[in-house]
Design a protein that fits this description.
mainly alpha, 2% strand
């Protein structure tokens, strides 16, 4: 374990977030105490409060940290899809396949289900945490909706579909797959759910529009 007196302020803050993230995903936010976090980090309670004014501030920081990593991961795979194909459908399908492959290689403690964990324990959090959790979910919807809008402009869906609902389905496959994967200990569920969603989108938009 790293000695706390050798860490800078920013390094200690990150260390606390790493410890807290693991504890929250393992047993929930309510069961995670400040005392256990400072004991593992090797600092005093005053040291903890220097970085986070209370547990809600810690929860907010955990969500912000997760959002940054989530955005970076999704940007990378879907940007790669667009690099490999100019066709919006093929680009999105490639991005989903790359995402499935990426998720299959991630460690079991990947914090993707942090948002779901916080939703399950929503009464523990203040307005700022609720607002950020809500913002993250809407960002997922907006991200996938942009891809689906581009696809719908060139392809006729096999049946009428609400694109917001379809965008939410992509998010649900990812988040739900993470939760089920953790619950069962299976690393296969998440990539399988992403690929099933990919196959549905592929079949739904199999027909180019007459103007495309």
């Amino acid at each position: 374990m790293e000695r706390s007196d050798r860490l800078t302020g920013s390094e200690m803050r990150e260390r606390l977030l790493q410890i807290a993230e693991g504890a929250v995903l393992a047993k929930g936010f309510g069961a995670t105490s400040i005392e256990e976090l400072i004991a593992e980090a090797g600092i005093t309670k005053n040291g903890f409060f220097y970085h986070f004014r209370d547990k809600n501030a810690l929860a907010l920081a955990l969500l912000e940290r997760y959002m940054e990593r989530d955005e970076a991961l999704l940007d990378a795979v879907f940007s790669r899809g667009r690099e490999l194909s100019d066709d919006p459908l093929q680009a999105f399908l490639i991005g989903l396949k790359l995402l499935a492959e990426k998720m299959a290689d991630l460690p079991q403690d990947f914090p993707g289900c942090l948002v779901a964990t916080f939703c399950y324990q929503e009464r523990l959090f203040d307005r700022d945490v609720h607002a950020l959790n809500h913002e993250i979910v809407l960002k997922w919807r907006a991200r996938f909706r942009r891809n689906l809008d581009a696809i719908a402009a060139e392809y006729t869906p096999a049946e009428a579909v609400d694109l917001d609902a379809l965008a939410d389905m992509v998010s649900t496959a990812i988040e739900g797959g993470l939760v089920l994967g953790r619950a069962t200990g299976s690393t296969k569920i998440l990539p399988e759910q992403i690929m099933l969603t990919r196959n549905y989108i592929k079949l739904l938009f199999a027909t180019p529009s007459s103007g495309g």
